[in-house]
Structure prediction request, 238 residues.
Amino acid sequence: MSIEKRESGAFIIEMRHCQFQWNKHQPPIIDIDTFLVKRGEHVFIKGPSGCGKSTLLSLLTGINIAQHGEVSVLGQSYSQLSSSQRDRFRADNIGYIFQQFNLLPYLSVIENTLLPCQFSRKRSRQITGSATDKAKELLGRLKLTESLMETPIVKLSIGQQQRVAAARALMGSPELIIADEPTSALDFENRTSFIELLKEEAGRTDSTLVFVSHDPTLEPLFSTSLSLNEINKVRKNQ
Prediction:
């Protein structure tokens, strides 16, 4: 990851001169001159609760649009897309692991894992062979046994649900994986194990991983890290 200017097109993520505010009568919560991430990097972004990490991720995924500046992912500027086009782009190219996992409680483990292939033809086409077989393979590598495949999500432990959320995000080899505090409910040993598995699976397809957390003890698990407070001018000026 780099925060200096480089030739455009060399990065999977480009944020330049970005400002975002929730209300025009309030000051910006995000004010970042430059944030660049290379393809295949595994980047750890740290910062205390309330510093704007989830807001940053909403900009990187096109859920929200910066009022000023530009955010581009895979060379595509979000400001040039409509809301529905951004939804399609996100479904096709980004695997998102939410802090609360956002699994569907009425679906089984295997059904939750297969959801990206139902929403994205691109990700479905990127799977060699059966999508169900690929889902089972991913779940197995993430330490979920065959006997759990048809189990309703609500009957799984937090750690098991976390692995299903990761498998779902990895289905169809999206080029960008976003992880928003997905380990906050786990103890340190289980957090470490999960992150190592996630990095290994992202590395298999050369996916870029952006992982955010308020927990600085996770930083040594990543080769590249930064503090959001250091690049966000809003926090520097407070």
Summary: The mean pLDDT is 90. The CA atoms of residues 93 and 115 lie 14 Å apart.
